[in-house]
Amino acid sequence: LEEFLQKNKTKDVLSSEQILEIKNNAKIFINDAVHKNDIVVIETSHGIMKFKLFPDIAPQNCQNFKKLANSTFYDETFFHRMIPDFIIQGGDILTRDAEEKNDGTGNPGWTVDAEFSNLKHKKGTLSMHRIKNDVNSAGSQFFITLSRQKKLDDNYTIIGEIIDGSIVLDMISNVPSESKIAFRLLKNKIPK
Q1: Which residues of the chain have pLDDT under 70?
Q2: For residue 10, is it left (φ>0), alpha (ψ between -120 and 50) or beta?
Q3: In 3-state terms, what secondary structure has residue 47?
C-alpha cells in the first residue's frame, strides 16, 4: 500500500513555487455568480460524486468554493483525512507537494466567515472545514460527512449535499487504512 500511495502521490508533485502560483491564480480568478443549478463534480479514483450547492444559505462560502474549483486550485488534490463513519476531508493544496506531514495545513491564503444555518449534517453533506477555535477561518478545505453528525450542526458552514454518487462515497469510506491492512497481513497464529 505504501508503495502504491507514494507512486500515486509523486505522480504530480508540485514545488512550493508551483503551489504559490496556483494560490495566486486562484486569488485573482474572476468567478461568475453561484446559481442554484450549479453542480459540483468531484472526480475520484473510485468514481464521480456530484453535489448541489446552497448559495442562498451560504453565499460567501459557495462563491469561494466555486472560485477555487474553477481556478483549478482543487485539481489533483487528495482526500487527506478519512475517519470511518464520520468524514472525509479534502481541499488542501499541500497534498500536492512531497511533504506528507503538512497535509491538512494548507489554505488558499485567505479565509471566509462562517455562515451557519439550520441545515443538519447528514450523510453526504458538503461543509467547509475551519480551524478549531476560529469559526471564521474557512479557506479551501472541505469535508463530506459519511453519516449523520449532530455535533457538527451549528458549528460548520454547510455549502451543499450529494445528489449523485453515494455509492462512490460509500466506497471511499470503506477504503482500509494502512493500519487495517497491516493488521490483516498479520498471521492469526505463531508459526512453529
Answers
A1: 1-11, 176-192
A2: alpha
A3: strand
